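Progress report, Aim 2. The chain analyzed during this reporting quarter is listed below.
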Amino acid sequence: MHVYFMRHGETNFNKLGLCNDDPARDVYLTAAGIRQAEQVARQLQHDKLGLIVTSELPRTIQTAEIINRFHNVPIVQHAAINDIRSGFDGKPVRDYFAATDADPLHTCANGGESLLQHKARVLSYLEWLKQQSAQVILTVAHEETMRVFYAYFNQTPDTQLRSLHFGNCDVLKYQLD
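Predicted structure tokens for the chain:
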């Protein structure tokens, strides 16, 4: 099975430097984020997507709907790929990083989850993904989630997770067997 993993388009919270892990919060693609998603949609228009999977957060769903204009395939949500529960929803990303910097792999700030807890949740999604019948699947998720996907397929040590960076609408492609 061919799998694409992409980060959502730019959001209003990205521009403000704010965390968001609450699907009920009004976080949406900016005009630039919409253009980014449209560009990826054109790049993937000839790929034979059979399924698109998003997190439960609206920015991934909005990005997926733009991509799906060329494919008309089912879009399903999967909670395991939601963004990391930072404990800083609606607060500056820099505050989250400052609170977790001493031990980012294990620190659960403000009732959130650690990077290793997030990784375990995301890896459960990969097990679910292996059970799907579609031969080409696009997953639209978040930067923290993209770090886990990249590390899994490239055998990157956990200690390097925080150093991996993915821009809005960056796409990774792998073979999953």
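The radius of gyration is 15 Å. The chain has six helices and five strands. These observations will guide the mutagenesis work planned for the next reporting period.
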